[in-house]
Design a protein that fits this description.
- By secondary structure, this protein is α/β, with parallel strands linked by helices.
- The protein is built from 13 helices and 33 strands.
- Strands 19, 20, 21, 22, 23 and 24 form a 6-stranded parallel sheet that branches. Strands 3-2-1-33 form a 4-stranded parallel sheet. Strands 4-6-8-10 form a 4-stranded parallel sheet, with no helix packed on it.
- Helix 11 (340-346) runs parallel beside helix 12 (359-367).
- 19% of the residues lie in helices and 38% in strands.
- Helix 2 (25-28) links the parallel strand 1 and strand 2 (31-43).
Length: 410
């Protein structure tokens, strides 16, 4: 009778690596459906035969067939392969993060039967042939063997010229920033230091010395003389102007709120590589600043950005008579007593992953939103052939076995 109510069982496996090579059919035959969500599934001839007879749904980026005894290493976070890395023969490596391979590690790399990387791989050029064993969900870059690898975006500090090696070569995979005010570039030039990098950001005052540090293939971006450098997104406020002044180069986006409208008059032709977010009422005042920018995005009233979760209610709207602009929010919940009319008049969203609202609010939310992943009431998605609502959820919960792991062995 209980089985009539619950139905047959379901098995859900969520993991980075699912090792199915020793799977036994009798252990799984009682399940009506088996769902495997994995970055990589390891199989052999035995596993393929058993799995073909089972009601399995595999959601995977990579299926690897490996025979014999295989050692499995699953690692969350960045992973470095260097000369002291101890790896048994015939090892499968799974990394949920970035992998940095150091020079002189050919013997270590030969121990890997295969590798799956959910991230980037950085490898010495001489060891590039070993990369045919790697499945990479991200970028793969090779660097000269004689280079020391630095941060992907690297800003040398005042002490770097003292620590740098004579004739040292350094690899920066994304951008070299020579923006520290007290950095003595002439000392690096005297040591014949060289940087291998695709791009460099340099103040105009330092260009003459800087160009001796890298070759002519580097994309050179010059910060105009007299401009302060701001590394990243920021909002226009008194603290920002006190620290950097009104003449700045911002490698990011600038947010301007109505309450800080008076500060626009203190801007002196700023340069902003990203997007400028500001209310429509401030567009003329901002134009007077003669700014250079990537894009201009008109927003409503108060800006709320970069929130993992946010609740929009009438109290928030009452406190923001000019409206609210919400962007880069993971989950936005809209209280059901917020009327569609208020949403249309006072709300704007951009790049929100999930917006939960009532069916009555949905049309208004869709009109005021850009690049939303999901808009609506999740209860709309919960129906099934066996009925929806709480009863269906209870049935499913009681009837489902769930396994969560980095490495799961069937």
């Amino acid at each position: 009778m209980l089985e009539d109510f619950l139905g047959k069982k379901m098995y859900v496996i969520n993991c980075d690596v699912c090792d199915a090579r020793k799977v036994k059919e009798e252990d799984l035959s009682s399940y009506e459906k088996i769902i495997i969500n994995a970055d990589t599934i390891l199989v052999n001839e035995h596993a393929k035969s058993v799995l073909s007879r089972l009601p399995i749904v595999c959601n995977t980026d990579n299926t690897l067939e490996l025979e014999g005894e295989v050692n499995v290493i699953s690692h969350n976070g960045n992973y470095e392969i260097n000369g002291s890395t101890a790896v048994p023969e015939n090892t499968f490596l799974s990394v949920n993060g970035s992998v940095i391979i150091k020079p002189g590690t050919g013997e270590v790399l030969s121990s890997y039967a295969a590798a799956s990387v959910n991230g980037s791989v950085l490898c010495p050029a001489s060891l590039a042939p070993f990369l045919n064993r790697f499945s990479v969900n991200g970028t793969t870059k090779c660097y000269p063997d004689d280079c020391t690898v630095l941060d992907a975006v690297f800003t040398p500090d005042a002490w770097f010229p003292l620590r740098a090696r004579q004739e040292g070569r350094y690899y920066v995979s994304k951008q070299l920033r020579l923006t520290a005010e007290n950095l003595d570039l002439s000392a690096l030039v005297a040591k014949q230091v060289r940087f291998v990098t695709p791009a460099a950001l340099v103040p105009e005052e330092k260009v003459t010395d800087a160009v001796a540090l890298f070759d002519e293939t580097v994309k050179l971006t010059v910060i105009p003389a007299g401009y302060a450098f701001i590394p990243g997104d920021a909002g226009l406020d008194e603290a920002l102007l006190e620290k950097y002044g009104g003449k700045f180069y911002m490698d990011g986006s600038l947010t301007v709120e109505s309450k800080n409208a008076s500060l626009l008059s203190r801007l002196e032709k700023p340069q902003i590589t990203g997007t400028v977010y500001l209310p429509e009422s401030l567009t003329e005042a901002f134009r007077q600043a003669e700014a250079e920018y990537g894009k201009l995005q008109i927003v409503k009233g108060t800006t709320l950005a970069g929130k993992a979760m946010l609740t929009l209610d009438n109290a928030l709207l009452d406190a923001s008579p000019d409206g609210v602009s919400i962007h880069n929010c993971g989950l936005l919940r809209i209280k059901k007593d917020v009327s569609p009319e208020r949403i249309l008049d006072l709300v704007q969203t951009c790049n929100c992953g999930c917006i939960l609202c009532t069916p009555e609010q949905k049309g208004a939310v869709e009109l005021v939103s850009r690049n939303a992943g999901f808009i609506g009431d999740l209860k709309e998605e919960s129906g099934s052939e066996g009925g929806g609502g709480m009863l269906a959820m209870l049935k499913q919960a009681a009837n489902t076995k769930v396994a969560n792991a980095d490495l799961y062995v069937l």
